[in-house]
Structure formats: C-alpha cells, structure tokens
Design a protein that fits this description.
This protein is α+β, with helices and mostly antiparallel strands. The protein has helices at about 40-50, 85-90, 90-115, 135-150, 180-195, 300-315, 360-375, 395-405, 420-425, 505-510; strands spanning about 30-35, 55-60, 75, 125-130, 155, 170-175, 195-200, 205-210, 215, 220-230, 245-255, 265, 275-280, 285-295, 320-335, 340, 350-355, 415, 430-435, 440-445, 450-455, 465-470, 475, 485, 490, 505. The strands form 5 sheets. Strands 3, 4, 5, 6, 11, 12, 13, 14 and 15 form a 9-stranded mixed β-sheet that branches. It binds FE2/S2 (inorganic) cluster. The site of FE2/S2 (inorganic) cluster (FES) has 12 residues, from loops.
C-alpha cells in the first residue's frame, strides 16, 4: 500500500491493498458522492449507506493514501484545542456540546467494530496529560476545571504510564487506539456489502448543478444529489483555505530493549507537544511516539525533525531499534474547532469536513454523524457548532491568515538546456533543490538513476512557491498544503493540477 510520502508508516507494513469489488457507476444517480477514501470518507459513506442512501466513494489514489495511512491513531474525547480554550472562544454550552460530540464519536467507533467485526487492534485506554513546570501546571489546572465543566470524564492522577518526571497529571477515561488502515478496510468491506461503490484512481475535479450535481472526475462525469469533500481540504479557492493552516507531524514506531511499553496513552504539554502509545502489530509491540509539528514547508530540513524526535524518545526510553518513521499532514482550524457542514460558496448540497487539527480520528466520526443527520433530516445538533461558515472574532486570526500568504515567485519558461542545469545544481541522486534561474525559481530533483527532473515550483492552486520536503521526498506548498511528488504529480490537494514540467534538452544532441 502506498502513501502520500516516501517513508513507510507502521500502518502500511504488510497490509495488502484493498481491492473494491463494486465498480459500476454508469447511468446511476447516487444520493451521495463522498470524495476521499480515508477514515472520514469511509465512515461517513458507510453511515449514510446504512441509513438508506446510495453512496459512491471516489478516491484519487487508493484507500488510506492520505493522512489515514500516516496518523498515529489516538481516539480521544479531548482535543488539541483544550476545553478551557473552547470555553473561552465558544462558551460553556458549546464546550459541553463538543464533549458530547466526542463521546458520540467514540460510541460510533465501538459500534462499527462490533457490528462489522473489524479486527483492527482496537483497545480502550486512558489518556494521561501531564505538566513538567509551573507554567504548564497552571495551564493544566485550567484545562482540568474546564474539562469537568464540559462533562468530560476526567480526574487527577498520581501516576502516568511512562517513566518521565512530571509535576501534575490528569487522566481522561475511556479513550482508545486502533490500527487505522485495518479499521478503514473493515469499513470499506462493510460499505460494499451494504451496496456502496468505491472507485479508486478517480480524482474528482469539480461539481456543478443544483438538485442533481454533475461531478467531473478523471473517470468521467458522475451524478449525485449530494457531495461531501472528505479530502482534508477541498479543492478550488474557498474561505476555508484562509481559515485552515497545513501542518506536518512526525512519528516513530520503535521497539524497546526492556519491554517497558506504556499501557495507556500519554501526552506532554511542551509546545509542540509529544505523545506516546503502544500498538502490537503482527505480534510485535511498538512504542509509537509523535511530535515536532510545524507548519507545512516552514522547516528547511525535515529530517532534522525526525532526529529531534528520536533524541527525545531515546532520552526517556531504552530504544532497541527505530522500526518505522513517517510524517503526515493535518489542517489546523483558525478558531480551534473543525469545519463540518455546508461548504461556503457552493451549491446547498455540497458539504465539507476539514480543520481536524491533530484529532482526525475523533473528528472523522463526528463528521460521519453530523453529515448523515444533515443529509437525512436537514439538521443536526452539531450543525451550528461546526458550521464552516462561522467566523469567530478570535485574537490572532489576522496573523493566521497572514502566515499563509507566503512569497509568490514564478518560473517563466518551459525548456532548459542540460548543460546550463549542470552549472545550476550539483545534486546527488535522491536530492532536490530550488534554484534560481534567470531571476526566477526552478524546482530540480535528481532521481535514484541520476536523471534530472525540473518543474515549475509555482503551486497550481493559487501560485505560492513549493519547497522540498527532504524526509518524505515531496514538493510541499506552505500556503494551503498542496503536495506534489518529486516529478510534480499532485499528492494532496487543494491543488488539482500537477506542477508544470520543464523540459530538459541537450544542446549537444540538438546540434
Ligand atoms: Fe494554495 Fe499552494 S496550496 S497556493
């Protein structure tokens, strides 16, 4: 199974690719077309299909190609945006509603696993949040009080599941973990058994219409009464591109010498924070540790993030070997809560689920519940809370928008001579670089066979300049998170078009 990055995640290892069995779409008008074959897309599609709607899932590559194949799969009833911040920004009642939504999401996980007998290493665990200095302790106290007010199942604890010194800790009860690709494949099987259709290698380009939407895809035009973008961020240019910022997060799966694997989930309060858990896969236990998050394409040397994370893990655990390391992308919402519901600026029947921050597992299931209710009944108790059109007057919001507006530079021209390129870049195989060429930027990559590839580094979304992600070998856009393979193919939206290829010719051969 491939992913949107060069590194192999724990969830890709030895997992045979899912093969859809239902593929006939000709002449059909679907009740709902879901774009994106990750956990959000499949959970929502299955939920809708089981409620009586006919659903089609279209995935540009294959199931779990995106962030679902690179998550660390923590299932939480608390969020990166802590309950005290939710209370401050949205009020006490809404904070309670968020906690209720999280509990509903956990119930849906349990129900799916039981109903469809999905074998995915699902385990209920407690989640420990701990402070390590005075400032963190003061913050933890606020989080604890706010969590109680929100009716989250939380208490103070004297111990944490890892051997790291701490000042104070709280524990959220009834959290969980699982193997995400095994879970999504289980959902996909159940979806097909219920009559749903999955189309892989099918990129959705756009949709138009009112009662019946005409959806243009790379496999032809399809028809549906509703469309859901479950692609992390929708394509096109939308207000949500200015309210969500793309981030990268790093993860390691390591084996320990002393078998001291944490029995529960744990989170420190460093900024950016680290998180830890254990998962057994094919009879082998792994400590999964994550962190070192940063805005996409805002760190020059992404391999350095892995080095820092590994050094941190080795400080606290007796590492036998680092078995897997990988990174993945998520979108941080400007006011702290996900955007789920009608996609602003689009026909009424077009929906979106994005801005999940680091809580994609929980939000995926909140999205499934909310969108199923909206489509089936026209309303949901969570509709207003997560409405994508809301605009909260949050401090720092203008900065948030400004951060996304990075330098625009364009390369003009489509042909380059090999001889000139040699002067421009001295790259080793597997390396890439942005170089200046006649005053403009050019993205160069030398593949493992020594062949040079050149692309225009101007992102095809709205023209920011991509930068090289050395760890995952991709061209990443700092503005709204589009990502491209070394030779310019779209890996992740919102871009819908590949980077422009710059032809390399030889002056010698032309003579
Ligand atoms: Fe928007 Fe690149 S993703 S400009």
């Amino acid at each position: 199974m491939k992913r949107d990055g060069a590194l192999l995640s724990l969830w890709q290892n030895k997992i045979p690719e899912f093969q859809p069995v239902n593929g006939q779409t000709e002449g059909k008008v679907f009740d709902v077309m879901v774009v994106g074959g990750g956990i959000t897309g499949l959970t929502t599609a299955l939920h809708l299909q089981r409620s009586g709607k006919s659903c089609l899932v279209a995935e540009a590559y294959h199931l779990c190609f995106g962030t679902t194949g690179g998550t660390t799969a923590h299932l939480n009833t608390f969020f990166d945006t802590s309950y005290d911040k939710i209370q401050k920004n949205f009020g006490e009642e809404d904070a309670q509603l968020v906690a209720r939504a999280a509990n509903d999401a956990m119930d849906l996980f349990r129900a799916n696993i039981e109903t469809y007998a999905i074998k995915c290493g699902f385990e209920e665990k407690d989640g420990y949040l701990f402070s390590q200095d005075e400032a963190q302790t003061a913050e933890l106290d606020k989080i604890y009080q706010a969590s109680l007010k929100a009716n989250a199942e939380v208490s103070i604890t004297e111990r944490i599941p890892i051997d790291i010194s701490f000042q104070k800790a709280i524990v959220y009860h009834d959290q969980a973990q699982l193997h995400p690709t095994q879970y999504v494949y289980g959902l996909a099987r159940a979806f097909e058994e219920a009559g749903g259709i999955i189309l892989q290698d099918c990129r959705v380009q756009d949709c138009k219409g009112d009662e019946i939407l005409e959806v243009r895809t790379t496999k032809g035009t399809m028809k549906a009464a509703h469309l859901i973008w479950a692609t992390h961020i929708p394509p096109g240019v939308n207000v949500l591109h200015f309210r969500c910022a793309p981030y990268r997060s790093y993860a390691l799966a390591v084996q320990l010498k002393d078998g001291a694997y944490p029995e529960n989930l744990a989170y420190d309060m460093v900024d950016p924070y680290h998180y830890y858990r254990t998962q057994e896969v094919d009879g082998i236990k792994y400590l999964i540790a994550g962190g070192e998050d940063h805005k996409t394409a805002h760190v020059k040397n992404t391999e350095e993030c892995f080095r820092k994370l590994e050094a941190h893990v080795r400080t606290h655990f007796h590492v036998e070997e680092v078995s897997f390391k990988w990174s993945s992308q998520y979108f941080e919402p400007s006011d702290g809560l996900a955007y789920i519901g009608h996609l602003p600026g689009n026909p009424n029947r077009v929906f979106v689920a994005t801005g999940f921050g680091g809580n994609g597992m929980t939000y995926s299931h909140i999205a499934a519940i909310l969108l199923t209710e909206l489509i089936n009944t026209g309303q949901s108790k969570y509709e207003k809370l997560f409405h994508p059109g809301r605009l909260k007057p949050i401090a720092g919001f203008s900065n948030f928008i400004k951060e996304g507006a990075d330098v625009v530079a364009q390369f003009i021209g489509k042909k380059l001579s090999k001889e000139k390129l040699t002067e421009l870049a001295d790259l080793a195989p597997g390396e890439a670089r942005l170089v200046k060429y006649e005053g403009a930027s050019l993205a160069l990559y030398k593949d493992e066979q020594g062949i040079l590839h050149a692309v225009n580094p101007t992102c095809t979304h709205v023209k920011c300049t991509v930068d090289w992600n050395s760890a995952e070998k991709s061209w990443d856009c700092p503005c709204h998170g589009a990502r491209y393979s070394p030779d310019g193919k779209v890996l992740t939206g919102p871009a819908g078009k590949d980077l422009e290829v710059v032809e390399i010719f030889s002056l010698m051969e032309e003579k």
